[in-house]
């Protein structure tokens, strides 16, 4: 068996921090702990169990769940995640067997001990309830496919997989919420268990929920990593973004779960008592083709549209530069699995050539290209009516593609109607042309993310739900990568991204910069965590809050973007923290941020 070695890179963090010193914090900005914190969330997630989520608070859904539950490792954004519920882990030479030793003395919120029986039950239950827990369970019943769980003793669990699972510590180890056997063993329809308060082992207990109105969480004083720094977190549901930021300005809430809209950042200033922390969640916003419908089933047509789309201009105009242009290989550039030097190719002359060769050389009087059968190159894009930035981006894309003879028209729909339009009866091809969506961390850092999102339609992955595109070589590469070691899989995933770039089943418009507004006088212990933003466990646990304060050298009142990997490895954090700008927040109408559709993830 090969043991896993871990370590603490605090020395590197301190050296980096010397170049990233934030302004001196005031007395109000030193609130490293708090009795009560109000957090404005933008939707309701039922009772925060892995089986009852509405998935409408993306990109912070998983963060809310993981305040209540724990996983074996942390975090999924790291190649070498930190042991969490696990104290240690080892893997067999063939990577088919993982042996995990749990921490001693961990308890559930109701005081019962968390044991290997609970962990074994959790994995078995997710596998059995695949239809109710697809957001999490696909890493148990699909890749890696679990054969059986073996309880060795009270603190030791052995997982046996049907195929090699070298990435188990990342997925599902650093993602799957562990659930208590005594609470779930009698529940046969977990998706309907929306009224009971959950029992987890996480730093916070959910003690009250009012449907579509609010949550109230209290600190788990017996948490194995120390008593949380905030005694109580109240989460009112504030669906209107303008109202949420107005409540922040007046001090009614101390944090807003929405990204600060780009168009408001330039208006910040003064002494409103509001600060902004930069911390990426690896978000991407993309246009997804319906690759099973003509002419969007043509790789040449899709690639031509991609070549004619200027993603840098979209970032500059729509996000006011607060983001990075999309890359043709899909994965976020900071993902450990992204191919080096990836980019978006802009070549309008090549786009013209591809469209001519695809049979669209002729144009109608209005300039729109048409085929010999009279069909015109007109692309209708479904956009959520709640996402004005997406709508604006598609409108700009339309202007960019008009000279190429491609007409693009956005069709704004409410989220429910949009979801319905994307569906089709079994065996039929959906009627839409393309749709906009936003994905977050899990899609980009999952070692098998490309497999899940773009594998050919069929029993493997869920590419049929996303685009319906398929490529045999891509399938071969991602299937082989799924059973290969972390280093061996990278060249395969890089080649798979090159295929995506060439055939363009989706066009990533941008990777949004994560910027989160908060009031330091309410709470200032926020820990920027790459891939997690700032609303996560580490922002409420003493050892990480203290480490962040030491690393910044700026007291307790500042937070910023961590340019390095906070997942680290080992029992201590490796937090590289940037500076924060303390800014005033002016009232204004706020563009509604993008939410992922439930079946996108």
CATH architecture name of the largest domain: Roll
Assign the structural class, choosing from mainly alpha, mainly beta, alpha/beta, alpha+beta, or little secondary structure. Answer: alpha+beta
CATH top level of the largest domain is Alpha Beta
Give the biggest beta sheet.
6 strands, mixed
If you compute it from the alpha carbons, what radius of gyration comes out, rounded to the nearest whole angstrom?
24 Å
Question: Helix fraction?
Answer: 25-40%
Looking at CATH, the homologous superfamily of the largest domain is Dipeptide-binding Protein, Domain 3
Q: Categorize the overall geometry.
A: globular
Q: What is the spatial order of strands in the main beta sheet?
A: 15-21-14-20-18-19
Spans where pLDDT lies below 50 across 5 or more residues? 1-29, 553-558, 560-601
In the CATH hierarchy, the third-tier topology of the largest domain is known as Dipeptide-binding Protein, domain 3
| Oligomeric state of this protein | single chain
Domains (count)? 3
**Number of helical stretches of at least 4 residues:** 18
Give a short overview.
The protein is α+β, with helices and mostly antiparallel strands. It is built from 18 helices and 23 strands.
Give an overview of the whole structure:
Helices cover 26% and strands 19% of the residues. The protein has 18 helices and 23 strands. Helix 1 (10-17) crosses helix 18 (542-552) and helix 3 (116-128) crosses helix 4 (134-141). The protein has three domains: 2-46 and 202-277 and 528-590, 3-Layer(aba) Sandwich (D-Maltodextrin-Binding Protein, domain 2), CATH 3.40.190; 70-184, Dipeptide-binding Protein, domain 1 (Alpha-Beta Complex); 284-512, Dipeptide-binding Protein, Domain 3 (Dipeptide-binding Protein, domain 3, Roll), CATH 3.10.105. With 601 residues, it is of the alpha+beta class. Strand 16 (362-363) and strand 17 form a beta hairpin. Residues 1-29, 553-558 and 560-601 have low confidence and may be disordered. The strands form six sheets. Strands 15-21-14-20-18-19 form a six-stranded mixed sheet. The chain has a five-stranded antiparallel sheet with strand order 1-5-6-8-7, with helices on one face. The longest helix is centred in the last third of the chain and has 18 residues, at 486-503.
């Amino acid at each position: 068996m090969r043991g896993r070695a871990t370590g603490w890179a605090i020395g590197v963090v301190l050296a980096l921090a010397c170049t990233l010193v934030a302004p001196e914090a005031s007395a109000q900005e030193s609130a490293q702990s708090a009795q009560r914190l109000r957090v404005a969330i933008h939707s309701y997630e039922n009772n925060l169990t892995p089986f009852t989520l509405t998935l409408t608070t993306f990109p912070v859904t998983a963060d809310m769940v993981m305040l209540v539950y724990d996983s074996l490792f942390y975090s999924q954004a790291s190649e070498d995640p930190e042991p969490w519920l696990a104290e240690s882990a080892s893997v067999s030479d063939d990577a088919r067997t993982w042996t995990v030793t749990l921490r001693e003395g961990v308890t559930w919120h109701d005081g019962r001990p968390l044991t290997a029986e609970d962990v074994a039950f959790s994995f078995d239950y997710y596998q059995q309830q695949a239809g109710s827990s697809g957001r999490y369970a696909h890493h148990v019943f699909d890749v890696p496919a679990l054969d059986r769980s073996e309880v060795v003793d009270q603190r030791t669990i052995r997982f046996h997989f049907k195929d090699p699972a070298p990435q188990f510590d990342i997925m599902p180890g650093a993602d799957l919420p562990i659930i208590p056997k005594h609470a779930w063993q009698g529940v046969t329809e977990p998706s309907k268990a929306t009224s009971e308060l959950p029992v987890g082992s996480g730093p916070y207990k959910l003690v009250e929920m009012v449907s579509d109105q609010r949550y109230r969480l209290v600190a788990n004083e017996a948490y194995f990593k120390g008593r949380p720094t905030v005694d109580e977190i109240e989460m009112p549901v504030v669906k209107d973004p303008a109202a949420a930021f107005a409540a922040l300005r007046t001090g009614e809430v101390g944090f807003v779960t929405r990204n600060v809209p780009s168009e408001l950042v330039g208006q910040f200033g003064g002494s409103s008592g509001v600060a902004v922390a930069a911390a990426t969640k690896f978000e991407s916003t993309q246009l997804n083709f319906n690759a099973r419908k003509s002419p969007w089933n043509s790789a040449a047509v899709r690639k031509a549209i991609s070549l004619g789309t200027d993603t840098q201009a979209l970032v500059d105009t729509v996000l006011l530069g607060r983001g990075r242009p999309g890359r043709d290989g899909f994965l976020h550039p900071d993902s450990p699995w992204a191919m080096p030097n990836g980019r978006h190719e802009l070549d309008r002359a090549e786009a013209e050539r591809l469209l001519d060769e695809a049979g669209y050389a002729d144009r109608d009087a209005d300039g729109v290209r048409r085929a010999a059968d009279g069909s015109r190159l007109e692309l209708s894009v479904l956009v959520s009516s709640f996402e004005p930035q997406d709508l604006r981006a598609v409108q700009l894309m339309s202007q960019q593609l008009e000279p190429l003879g491609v007409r693009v028209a956005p069709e704004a729909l409410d989220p429910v109607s949009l979801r319905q339009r994307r569906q089709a009866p079994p065996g039929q091809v959906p009627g839409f042309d393309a749709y906009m969506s936003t994905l977050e961390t899990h899609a980009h850092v999952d070692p098998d993310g490309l497999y899940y999102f773009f594998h050919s339609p069929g029993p493997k992955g869920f590419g049929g739900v996303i685009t319906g595109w398929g490529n045999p070589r891509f399938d071969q590469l991602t299937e082989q990568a799924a059973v290969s070691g972390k280093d061996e899989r990278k060249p395969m995933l890089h080649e798979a991204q090159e295929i995506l770039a060439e055939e363009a089943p989706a066009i990533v418009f941008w990777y949004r910069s994560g910027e989160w507004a908060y009031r330091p006088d309410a709470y200032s212990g926020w820990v920027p965590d790459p891939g997690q933003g700032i609303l996560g466990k580490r922002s409420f646990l003493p050892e990480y809050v203290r480490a962040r304060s030491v690393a910044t050298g700026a007291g307790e009142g500042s937070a910023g973007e961590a340019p390095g990997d906070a997942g680290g490895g080992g029992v201590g954090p490796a937090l590289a923290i940037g500076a924060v700008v303390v800014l005033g927040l002016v009232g204004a109408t706020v563009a509604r941020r993008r939410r992922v559709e439930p079946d996108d993830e």
